[in-house]
Amino acid sequence: MASLGLLRLGFIIDFLSKATLIGFMAGSAVIVSLQQLKGLLGIVHFTSKMGIIPVLSSVFEHREEVRGFNYEE
């Protein structure tokens, strides 16, 4: 969508429905939030995939690397 602004083709966005734009923005927010889990939890070994299932499975597989949790107690 940013390329449309650079090419002065932003009027094309007017033809997309509001639901489409909101869905696109919400999906982008979810992907960015999931990728921030690596830094938030301090996980060293993390997936490079962007899907929700690979990211969440990577978090659960490497839960022993999460900062602040001690499973020995």
TrEMBL record:
Stretches assigned to the SLC26A/SulP transporter domain: 2-66
GO cellular component entries: membrane
Any single biological process term in GO: transmembrane transport
Domain of life of the source: Eukaryota
Keywords on record: Membrane, Transmembrane, Transmembrane helix
Residues passing through the membrane, by range: 12-34
Keyword Membrane on entry: yes
Presence of the UniProt keyword Nucleotide-binding in the record: no
Membrane topology according to the record: Multi-pass membrane protein
Compartments it resides in: Membrane
Coiled-coil segments on the chain, per record: none
InterPro entries in UniProt: SLC26A/SulP_dom (IPR011547), SLC26A/SulP_fam (IPR001902)
UniProt name for this protein: SLC26A/SulP transporter domain-containing protein
